Structure formats: structure tokens, C-alpha cells
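#lab-general

N.A. 3:47 PM
ok so I finally got the sequence cleaned up, no stray characters, all 153 residues accounted for. can someone with queue access submit it? mine expired

B.Y. 3:52 PM
send it over

N.A. 3:53 PM
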Amino acid sequence: MANIAVAGASGSLGRMVVADALARGHRVVALGRDEGRLRTRLGGEVHGDALEIRRVDALVPDSLRGACEGCEAVISCMGASVSPALGAGRAGYLALDWPANRALADAAKAGGVGRFVYVSVAGHDLPAGTLVGASTLVHFRPDLYPDPLAFSP
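B.Y. 4:20 PM
back already:
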């Protein structure tokens, strides 16, 4: 099985991705800003060696050095906004989500990670079939990940 880093692992979507990866037998490296919150929300002790917690802040790129070490893939669930627009007192997509995920993609490449996947709950409240941000990944690093469809399920 693979070693998978999951960024934003303490959030709602991140917790689901971590749980699914663990259930499939993968080893997970959970990345997030608050180590205590990661341990509490993910049950770090329960999973033993299958789950490793690493404290990072993607808005501080130096904290990402080595964060993806030993991983074959990175799945980013991190972001403060569920909409590209500003609202609800949250930082907007362009102010927070984009630079954080770009820094993570750079760190993944520097760490030799072969696959970077970005997932989001953006548009979860829209009618089925509505396309939201299909080319988001291209905006992060078009030179590294030129085909966003390559990362579709």
C-alpha cells in the first residue's frame, strides 16, 4: 500500500479522506497547523504506525520542507473557503487557498512526490452536475500538473 500525505486532515473533508485511506490499508501522513487538533480528530494513537501527524503551515513555506518526505501522493483538502468569493468572515480563495496549495504543490515536487491531488467541497450546495473550478489545479502549477482531468476519480 501507499504512503499518502493528507493536507487539511483535521477538517471535515480531510478527516473523511484520512479515514478512507486508512480503511484501504494505506499509511497516512496527516498534515495540519494544529498537532493537538489532528490527534484529537483523527485518533492518532488508535491507528498506531498507520497514521503519522506532521505539523505544517502551508502559508509558511519553510514549514513544508520535508513534510511530504516518504510519500507517493499528496491529497490536499486544505482551504478556508468553500467558495471562490469572499464571505462569512473567511479569507477568500485567492488570499488563502490558492497560495497555500501552491506552496504545498511546490513542496511535494521538491520531495519527489509523484502525484498531487486537490479536492474541495466548493460548490457542495449547487445542483448536481454544476462544474466548479475544474481547472483549479492548473492555476496552482500548470507546469507541474498540466491536465486537471488526470486527477479526476
